[in-house]
Design a protein that fits this description.
The structure is a single chain. The protein is of the alpha+beta class. It folds into 3 domains: about 40 residues; about 250 residues, no CATH class; about 180 residues, no CATH class. It is about 40% helix and about 20% strand. The chain has 15 helices and 21 strands. Strands 7, 8, 9, 18, 19, 20 and 21 form a 7-stranded mixed beta sheet that branches. It has a 6-stranded antiparallel beta sheet with strand order 11-15-14-17-10-16. α5 packs across α13 and α14 packs antiparallel against α15. The protein is elongated, with a radius of gyration of 41 Å. One of its GO terms (biological process) is regulation of response to endoplasmic reticulum stress. This is Membrane-bound transcription factor site-2 protease. Its main location: membrane.
Amino acid sequence: MLATSAIAIFLIAWSAIFLIDYVLRVAHFEPYLRLSHRFGIEVSPFQLRFYVTAPPKETTLLNDKVDILDEEKKSDLFFEESRRSKCRNLMVRIWFVVGVAASVICLFGMTFYMSHLLLRDVGQWMTTARPKVAAYRGMEYRSMHDVLTSISPPEVKTTTAPDEMHDPVIIDDSEYDMIEDGQKSSSRGLVPIIPGFNLPWSHIPVFMIVLVAAAVFHELGHAWAAISNNVTVNGFGIFVLAVYPGAFTDIEPVSLKRATPFRRLQIFGAGIWHNLLLALLAFGIFHLTPVILSPVLAYGNGVSVKGVDIRSGLSNSQTGLFSGDIVKSIDECSVETTADWWRCIRDSKNMHNGRCVDKEAVEAATSFNHRTEADEILCCDEFNVTTAHVCFEREEKVAKEVEAQTRAPQLNALLGLEAHDDTPYGAALGAAPVEEKTVTKYSCLHARHVVEQAVCNVSDPCKNEKDQAEKVCVYPALHNGTRLVKIGLANRNKPILFVGQLNEVIQCHSSSSSSCFPRCHLLHRQKKMLEMVSISPLTPRFSFVHISWFEHFELAVKYMFTLSLALGLFNAMPVYALDGQFIVQTLLKSSGLSPRRRDLFQYIILLFGTVVLVLNILIGFIKLAVN
């Protein structure tokens, strides 16, 4: 989708939301007003907000008719409930104390890390903008051994001008930076996420759902910490700012102010702490994904195709590999795991196998005209056949006649010293001896029919039975590492044929885009390797299960780890309107400093953190635009 289209859709959507809210409120549409009052719906330009207040606490009145327990039983129940409550409160207190430590560590750690990123980027830009200078390496250095062993130079003038003495020797006249010295950092720093630019449109639903879940989990941590420390929570809300969702917790300010500084630290750091735990949980789930999905996805029953690179010949939408295909074999090599997949590809690359085909059919399809194109020999031009036919080669031994040796007349016979034999002069001594030579012949055969025949090679030739037609071993007329590969699929009756390189990627340089597609059904001639096929070791156990379930689940877990970790770490920074601001305020208030110094330190720290974060974000946008 183009950027202009995305911006247009964004503006139209927000205009429609704002207009609908305005019209319904002006018209006093009662159902919408009740809904807005119940859920606190507020619509403003590029902002949508939902707010739910906490339910009132209900007071349960004891009825006089309630059975009165005896004193001993009530005492036991009270003791048991008190013991459980103390244990639960202790665990909760330890939980949030650890959260305070984690949030303070993140505050200092993120401040240092973001400052380091900023200094590194600014230093690189200054180095890049500074004009380069020639590398100065001082005067030429010669050791005493070189001086003594070298040939004496020719005699030179004894008088030398002062400006001609001690000229520096420039070893390398290329541009040289004395500070950077050619060392460049590969780290990219912050990368802003922009939907449709570096975030695929297909990922946006998962991205939004995960971002809302991470934000809600963050705010629920604040709410739980407040309730555990007897601080009143007025309500909870969710908002959408432009295209980015978020959440917030409304804590009663008076009760929060009455809490001790350490309890306030527990409340302010609870969101950061819970985001870190959510990221850790997502990290563990990601590595346990095959185990979690094992009831519907199996391992060891082949490999599933997750996707095919668009540059590959197997990416054809009609006859190529599709997401969800289950590969069971490559040629005669069985595929059960990803290790088998790569082993079979390696075997197909290294082994040069042919197929045993009826000799009569091969000879009938023999071509007398052939030409070489790219990495294959074409010999089907003289036949009226479909593009599913491929040129195959074979070696045959043919008779090679040698010139007969004639009998020379003997000298004794010419002089009459010996009797003449009956062999006339110039007659051949005997029948001409016959020698055999090996020639390569080409036949145009149907590729699918050939690959279904038995395998043969130099060490294992075709076996001819008496009751069957004679077989001959034919090989695909392909060169330079190009192979004809048969890919067997569990979910299709017919295999896919692939003609191409198995070890390197060769771009399709044809001027016509149509020539980059397969020439025949299920026969792919693109010079693309099978490594361009993305596979998964898991296969569906049931017909209604698709391998995309695994991809979506894995994608959601990846986003959960990334977004939850980023949300927790960035909230820990000492920046205005983030949790780090309130953590810094609480730490300074409990430091014992005078109010004036405390306010000064607070202003400096928050200003520094805000500037560092804003500059890192701006540099991230600039890098994204430049790249």
